[in-house]
Every structure is written in structure tokens, then in C-alpha cells.
Amino acid sequence: MKKLIFVLTFLCFSFLVANCFARELLVLSGDKSQNSKRWQKEVLPEYSTSSQGKTLPVKIVSVKGNLFPEWLAKALDEGRVGEILGTPTFLIWDPKEEKEIGRIEGYTQKPRFFSQLEEAIHLISQGQHPGKREGSGSHSEGSDGDRRQEEGSGNNSNIMDHIYKTPEEAKRASEALGLGGEIHSHQTPEGTIYMPGATM
User: Fold this and answer.
1) Cα 104 vs. chain centroid, distance in angstroms?
2) Which of 96, 110, 163, 198 is the most exposed place for a label (fewest CB within 10 A)?
3) Model confidence over 114-125: pLDDT tens digits?
4) Which phi-psi region, left, alpha or beta, contains residue 87 (left: φ > 0; alpha: ψ -120 to 50)?
């Protein structure tokens, strides 16, 4: 009887450990994205020793110019990854199912990143998909199937829906979209425009 209890306990423990390490944090890091570089400088050196890093190992996925890696372009086409609007984007990845199960978009500061990641992990444990986006509209098919729009840009219709002339308008939209009132701006030939969310 003791042997049976020991074997069952060992199997349960092995199952739990396997599930904990079955997931990964994929960091879609743009080669021209300043926030991607900041995340790598501020978070990456200590990530593997953090509680999240011990159960969710990190892999950096370089996004250069207009190109996605081929496997990611395929996952976008097949709906296993939602729309990518900019970098950095942090995908919580199930390698067994080969699909995104949660995400965080953008990076502002280290404490906020760890807080967002902890919340995402908690929501996943409750069967939810934090940060879920539908479709694959942020990349376009090239002859090799791995082209996408310029880094940091998204589907034009989505962007045009969220451009404002004043910071106040963008802040209201940010709050309505659940982005905590964060905004960013861009210089254009017509002047400064404001958009909800952290700079990507």
C-alpha cells in the first residue's frame, strides 16, 4: 500500500512539474524597437531567477524589419497566434499544442511587466486567455509566407480607429480600451498624433 501511495504521489508530482515547464514565454523582439531593447536590458538578466522565469522559461524571437520567422507566420495564418500589433509582444506559448494561450503587449517598466505576467499566469490557470487577439491581419503574405507590416504597426483600419489630435482624447480611449490611461504620440507631416497604449 505504501508503495502504491508513493508511486501515485510521484506520478502526480511528475505531471505537475511537466505541466509547469510545458509553457514558455516567447518575446517577440523588434530589431528597431527601443522598448524591446529596454526589456532585454532591464528584465532579461534577472528573469530566469524570478518565480515566473522558473516556471515559464523565456525564448527571444527576433523580428527583423518586415519578416516574421516562418513558423510564426504559419501560426498566425492558422489562427494559433492572434494579431501582432507591435514589439515587444510577450506570448505565453503552449509548445505541445503549438499555440498562444496568453499575451502581454508592450513594455513600460519592470515592476509593471512582472505584475502583468503574474496576472496573465493567474488568468490562464482559471481557463482564460489574457490579451487574446483574433485574426492575423498584422502580417501580409509574401512569396515565402513570412512577411508582415512594418514593426510597431498594425492593421491600418485598427490604427485609424485610434488616432487622436489631443492627449486627452487618447487618454479617454485608453481608459475605455482597458489600457489604464496610457498613451503615446507620433510625429507626422501633419503634426503630432496621439494613440492609446504604451509605445511599442
Assistant:
1) 4
2) 96
3) 999 999 999 999
4) beta
Task: Give the integer Cα–Cα distance in Å for 121 and 124.
Answer: 5
Higher pLDDT: 77 or 175? It is 77
Structural contact between residues 81 and 136, judged by C-beta atoms closer than 8 angstroms: yes
User: Would you kindly state where each structural domain of the chain is located, as residue ranges?
Assistant: 23-154, 162-196
In whole angstroms, give the CA distance from residue 66 to residue 43: 26
Residue 185 is placed in which grid cell?
504620440
* In contact, 120 and 100? CB cutoff 8 Å: no
Q: How far, in Å, CA of 174 to CA of 195, rounded? A: 8
Position with higher pLDDT, 193 vs 8:
193
